[in-house]
Input
Amino acid sequence: MATETHGAEAVSTCVDSHGSAVGMPQLCGDWIGNQVFWLVITLVVIYFVLARIALPRIAAVLAERQGTITNDIAAAEDLKRKAEEAEAAYDKALADARAEAQVIAQKARDDIKADLDVAMEKADAEIAAKAAGSEKAIAEIRDSALANVEVVAKDTAGAIVAALGASADDAKIAAAVDAQLKG
Amino acid sequence: MATESAETADGGLVFHPMDQFIVKPLFGHGEVGMFTITNVTLWLFLAIVAVVLMMVLGTSKRAIVPSRSQSVAELAYGFVYKMVEDVTGKDGLKYFPYIMTLFMFIVFANFLGLIPMSFTTTSHFAVTVVLALSVFLTVTVLGFVKNGAGFLSLFWVSSAPLALRPVLALIELISYFVRPVSHSIRLAGNVMAGHAVIKVFAGFAAIAAISPISVLAITAMYGLEILVAFIQAYVFTILTCVYLKDALHPHH
Output
């Protein structure tokens, strides 16, 4: 360094009168004691700073981080498992509900069918009753018609007999008409 | 240094690439004694401040979701922790704070040294030798305490043919004692060389014709030095782990 040539008296055998180094300053014996002394102090200080404060602290932080990561992974696994369980429960509930709905639908269908059967039966019975009543009425009407035919025939026969100028009593005419009707 | 007096007569081109490594008192111009507060003291202190800022203040919120500074601190923690675990095994983890101290100090000292006009503490052999020797002594003592005489099996390569073993033992022994030397010189040498080269390029910037090239070269070197600052801290730390592994498990 050219700027360091301000004239100072040589305070060491390793420095010339201009303040420049004589030979290698590394080999100058005058300074070794000083360097070693301060170096040892420095190393001891750094050692205590590291061993007492810095290294335990960093080790703790790293361990804590490792623990946190492990815990987080475990928690994530746990949550995943829970989600799977919830999904399974949901699926099961869905299947149950579907089965129940099927049962209810079947029951409703059965109920309606039973109601329908009863109503049908009733309706059939009514229809049958009505048909029987109608048949009876028809039979009555037919019977009364036949009776009327008899009466009309007798009356007509009596009138015809009278118109022909003959007279016949009613009993004869009735017997004759009956005989004709039966024949 | 040869470049020391490389002055041209006309342009005043002056190279003092090593002046940046001079240790001087922070207050006054007196002599540097053992306890003098020097620029070394200042930059070591700033390294402490940087470590505290990042590792203590940066993590003060203890957030589960970290802030930027906290994640950098956690990154540094994880980086060194994994290195210790991978290289030395589980039983090396109780030495993790020591290795973390080494790494944090070197990495911050290196990067603080990259601030222009700063003083690079790790460019001095006095500093790196203390670091390397403390690792060497600790590891050697630990090896004998943990394994007793069994630690010597580190030098007795049982997988080699018997005839070769004494030779290998000699080589292993020499390489073992060279460890602290290479360990320390590697770090200081890399850091010092890079800083000196930057300074040399800066000296060339005084000549207008080549100053653009000089500035480009400084920029490129600075980028390289940023890599070196981290890589050398990493290398120093991982070698410490390797040596520690040898002490804990000496059997090949």
